[in-house]
Amino acid sequence: MANDHTSEDNNPIARRNFLLGAGTAVAAGLSSPAAAAAQQRGQAQAAPQPANDETFLTLTATEVAFFSAAADTMIPADELSPSGTACGVVTFIDRQLAGAWGTGAKMYRSGPFRKGKPEQGYQLPLTPREFFAAGILATNAWSRQTRGKDFDRLAPQERESALKELEAGKAALGDFNGRQFFAALLQITMEGFFADPIYGGNRNKAAWRMVGYPGLPAVYSNLIEEYRNKRYYAEPQSIADFS
Amino acid sequence: MATRLKEVDAVMVGMGWTGSIMARELTKAGLTVIGLERGPDLTPGEHFALPNIRDELKYTFRKELVQDPALETITFRHHRSEEALPMRRMGSFLPGNSVGGAANHWGGLHWRYLPSDHLCRSHIVERYGAKVIPEDMTIQDWAMSYDELEPYYDKFDRLCGVSGKAGNLRGRKIEGGNIFEGPRQNEYPNPPLKMTESALMFEKAARELGYHPFPQPISNASRAYTNIEGLTLGACQYCGHCDKAGCEANAKAGPQVCLLPLLRAEPRFTLRPRAWVSRLLYDKAARKVSGVVFTDTRTGEEYEQPAGLVVLSAYVFGNISLLFHSGIGEPYDPISGTGVVGRNYCYQLSRMGVTMFFENKEFNPFMGAPGSAMALDDIDGDNFDHSGLGFLGGARFACGHADGRPIGYRPVPPGTPRWGAEWKKATAKWYHHAASIAVSGSNYANRNHYLDLDPTYKDQLGRPLLRLTYNFVENDYKVMEYTVGVAAKIARAMNPTIMGPPRIRRGDYDIVPYQSTHNTGGTVMGTDPKTSVVNRYLQCWNADNLFIMGASTFPQQPAYNPTGPVGALAYWSAEAIVTKYLKSPGPLVHA
Amino acid sequence: MATMLKEVDAICVGVGWTGAILARELTKAGLNVVGLERGPKRTPREDFTLPAVRDDLKYAVRQELFQDTQTETVSLRHSASETALPIRRLGSFLPGTGVGGAGAHWNGVTWRLTPSDHNLRTHLQQRYGRDAIPAEMMIEDYPVSYEELEPSYDRFEKLCGISGKAGNLRGRIIAGGNVFEGPRQNEYPNKPLVQSMAGAVMEQAAKDLGYHPFPAPSANMSSPYTNPEGVTLGGCEYCGHCERFGCEANAKASPQACILPVLLTDPKFELRAYAYVKELVYDKQAKKVKAVRYVDTRSGEEFEQPAGLVVLGAYVFNNVLLMLTAGIGEPYDYRTGKGAIGRNYCYQVSGNGVTVFFEDKEINPFMAAGAHGTNLDDFNGDNFDHAGLGFFGGAWISAGPTNGRPILTRPVPPGTPRWGREWKRATAKWYNHAFSIGASGCNYSHRENFLDLDPTYKDALGRPLVRMTYNFRDNDYKMARYLGPVLDRIATAMRPAIKGNVNVRRGNYNVVPYQSTHNTGGTMMGADPKTSAVNRYCQAWDADNLFVMGASLFPQNASYNPTGLVGALAYWSADAITTRYLKAPGPLVPA
User: Mean pLDDT, chain B, as a whole number?
Assistant: First the structure.
């Protein structure tokens, strides 16, 4: 078990200011203060970048920072596993949202759209990709309003309290359904933690190690009797290990 | 049921170029404005950032910034005797779907229409007699002249920081600019972009043949530029990713760069992304619209937004379908030729030209911008004598390099197989050594080309899709034949090692390959309510507080890209609203 | 329009369990049969291979093998006064698509109904009085008794090689089997599966309480088995990837594993995959179905396939849809109680359970099979006295994990947060030390639970969606409340370190969480053509050459998984067709 992940530093996720296009260095010559202020705000929003070297297919810098902060709060690093981001949860989310599922596969998407009861299930026109984009916007706006910063820039304890409010439906996300957003966020985070590593999450099968799930090949006909009421230990194996 | 919101002074339906211009002008005049945008909000710093913005697969092929046909598309047929089928994937044209609209992913070609384009029918009648216009060619004059619109063309030029070289400054012809253009008060705000080797070769050959090449006018800033709003654009990086992607350098003009930073800070303005307008609230008796109904796609909630003034600033198809869904104006009937909504749909003749291969030239096709090209207008509009030619209109030519992105750009000489060892060899050999003259032709209105509602297919909100009935006609084929012949002559003069066959469009209009996002007409402007939807101020004849923006107001389509006049018309209409309409609301032109 | 094909003897609409069984029986009788399946052809060797078949995300979470809601779904409302909304993502139930249907991805729990389930109305009236059944509870007798159907149950069990232990052999009650079952001619073809730790704990607790535990009847092979078709199934690997997955070991009975290898080599049978049946062509006058129309989804082409005999072997909703759109039979009207099609839609009352946690027991939940529990039937059907209880029916109770796949299976004690440090600790601690006891309850038909056509939403072929008007009713809630203390008693008897909360079904029916793919009714079988769609031989009252298969035949849903009865009815009907109908085509039961 990786002990170097036991301590969690108190810094919010660092953001990287990288590769600003030469053309964006246009600070010169703003003719009105209002224009300058407006444009600077635009620049400030351009800054956030995650602290790792990954390339993402669809997530923006702000979204990567948000998912990273959420994943590390939901799955903190401790003696049981590295953090959510270290386990590749954000990579997993990026690939899922960029792919067929994220863009609405296997989802009935015809209107009209009406507000339903919760028991009628998801009723928005947004694809999962769009739903998460909208949810992050709304959550960050709420976080700025209540805590002065985007969610990912909060201290760990603040992130935790923010997530709890979101989970309990106590976050005032305007008209956006924060509880529904939280449920989706929790679900995709857990999928990323526990799914086969072929999807980019569950790196080094950390989540499978944590619970003792052996993964593949899962052929137990000769073992099931022997291991009735006896712990079965095996090095977890992924689909990739057999491919 | 729909929740009724607090009334605002004005609502913009769509937040691309025209919605942004209108919102800016109306808030400056003291109005409270809400901008409704069906798609998400995008900000260049967040969404057009390096390195991901250089993703050809995502932006060009998977069409990241383009309207999703699962939400809304059109159905298409060549003739009204056929059954239309839905366009299930975007291809021929690529409307946008976010704050900034198609201007997020446009190439930036920024033209003014010719004075004779503004007087399309009367100019032709005057020069050639009424008989040359075929009976089914329903071209008509614009509702204002070039001279009237010039100050607004100029204003939009200065908003965008257009790079180019004037060819007609207040009547003085200037060699090296486009000598066919209408007189302009001012030189372009920015000098032309740097030219590619291919552009210079084209220029030389064309000039030797007696033509008048000039730098293609472009909304890619050739240097850092502060626009009339005090906002600064960066300098073009010649990245070769202009069309279909956003600009990380803030060098390509668009609402995101040229207007929205101010609007976002404007207390009288509210931007509401993911607000999909399903219909306008129309009081036929009062000839007024009282607001719009929209769905917040983040919540599924339906809202009614009352407004004193409604600006239709969606894409061409959005504008037309909203009129249909709201029962505003008489739908066009191709059999009787009566009715106006959906009438005079036009497009553009593209995918034409010649590709040339030069053994000893190095083009570096990936370095370039749409503006690092030389253009030619000698065979365009009515810049040449059409007597005896049997067609009207023409084409503009351009040569340069703006895109060496290799999924899409892989020129090989004629006869090369499309795969296999020989294909590989030819692709590797010629990638750096090919250049093309691109030809883009005008498309004049035809009685049988129109838009109406499809009887079968529905959009995501459950509304009927718009149905397009369209094909090329004889005039188009003749334009193509003639103009591509001229292009081939210039190509030969460029003396290539190998010259590809002239690409001439034959056969029916095909909705699959990309051609241009220059769909026009359907809510055309005019002086007669029997043949137009809006008057010269883009005010709807049937609802005086409804103003309709964009290329849907064009009565026909010259060979030029439409954005220049689209922006100019927005400023022109905005001024009429602010200086005339707000003082005494009512029809600005009496029918 | 549709291309007319050459007539065949018989068509099976859908090639899942029933389509495959009927196709096999009819070809054996000499008929030429075409199987039309909307989805792809899936073979275990190509599509269910290691390692890819162990992909939890792809199969269990992203629903690889299930019906695509983008193509077809159903809408739901809880009562007739509400507006139904489409089920946009599958959740509560998971119909299959593709050859093998849901039979490819089921768990394998294979029951017979009890004799009193077969004559439910009569039985309850006899035992509890003529007026005991509430008016709105529209339960009916099956028009075929347990004794009549027993040989067909037996045949299906032999086809599948069901693993289990008889509790009633020709009237002799056998301890260790299900003592409540009807008399069976033969022992199960396969011995029970290896008992799991959870099953052992359950068995002991149930025995301590005086109940009658027995191993779940399972279509997972306890040892390799050669069925009467000569096809050999492998032994179960206890891989924990049964439901929602295909079986790489050929150890789970399915059409692929049990029949298709024979059928596909039969020249009299032709399988057409990607053939999406759109409608039945019905001659009301002649009371015959003349043909079916289908779309080849690979080409978009539409075909009309005439046939002498049509077997409707699609999933419940499609059977109902095809009957309603063809106008066969009278649609059910809940206000008058008249009409047959869409009537008596039932589901299953699941979601009753309790999780138990043990410090000192190792459960190894990942070593498991799909139908691998230790069950008890003491509180099922009418196996216990309902006098004074205020409800009818009951549930089968079971313990034994079907999997330990950690995206979905992560038991934690009550009060544990859903994320964060504490959640991690609890998850790691309890993963291998917990299991659930579940009770799957019957669902008796109710006057206001029915299926009809949605007025608003359409599927990809442009047909209306099936609209489900459904909720749990008084009988269901009372039964669930009764089960709570029973579950608690069993859990307590296991002496766990922590006993989880006992959950019983409350609140509205919810389409989001998975419950069971045991939707039933809508084309029910019966003795009266006024209230049933088909007669006792599954022959449509209104089209004598149309035979309807599957759980849509059920007048109500016993607590048991439907596949055993579905398979038995298919053999029962096939027998009637081959021995009687083919000799003298016409109604087998006079109306």
Answer: 96
Chain C residue with the nearest C-alpha to that of B463? C456
Residue A68 near residue B294, CB atoms below 8 Å: no
Q: What CA–CA distance (Å, rounded) separates B257 from B250?
A: 6
Whole-model pTM? 0.90
Q: Which residues pair with C437 in a beta bridge?
A: C354, C399
At A39, the pLDDT band (50, 70, 90 cuts) reads: low
Question: Which amino acid would we find at residue A111?
Answer: G
Percent of chain A having pLDDT more than 90?
A: 70
Candidate from A5-14, B51-60, B94-103 with smallest mean pLDDT: A5-14
**How far is it, in rounded angstroms, from Cα B21 to Cα B2?**
29
Residue A14 pLDDT > 70, yes or no? no
- DSSP assignment of C89-147 equals S--S---B-STTGGGGT---B-----HHHHTHHHHHHHHH-TT-S-TTB-----SS-HH
Q: Which of B71, B262, B295, B299 to mutate to test the interface with A (most CBs of A within 10 A)?
A: B299
Strands B395-400, B373-376: pairing is: antiparallel
Distance from CA of B350 to the nearest CA of C (A): 30
- In contact, C56 and A213? CB cutoff 8 Å: no
**Nearest to residue C518, comparing CAs of C471, C568, C560?**
C560
Encode pLDDT of C557-580 as tens digits. Answer: 999 999 999 999 999 999 999 999
Residue B203: its H or E element:
helix B197-208
Looking at the DSSP bridge assignments, the partners of residue B446 are B137
Which residue would you say has higher pLDDT here, B79 or B506? B79
Mean pLDDT of A149-177: 94
Residue to mutate among B298, B301, B457, B465, with most A CBs inside 10 A, is: B298
What percentage of residues in chain A have a pLDDT greater than 70? 78
Instruction: Quickly tell me which residue has 């569950």 as its tokens.
Output: A202
Per-residue tokens: C266: 């039969």
Query: What was the ipTM of the complex prediction?
Result: 0.85
Nearest CA in chain A to C235: A221
CA dihedral C328, C329, C333, C334 (to 10 degrees): -110
DSSP C375-407: EE-TTSTTSS--TTTS----EEEEE--S---TT
With beta carbons under 8 A apart, name residues in chain C contacting A117: 78, 508
The residue with tokens 């409350």 is C506
pLDDT at B154 over 70: yes
Give residue A35's pLDDT band: very low, low, confident or very high (50, 70, 90).
Answer: low
Provide mean pLDDT across the span C331-357: 97
Name the token pair of A223: 């073992």
CB atoms inside a 10 Å sphere around CB C171: 8
3-state helix, strand, coil in chain B (%, to 5): 25, 25, 50
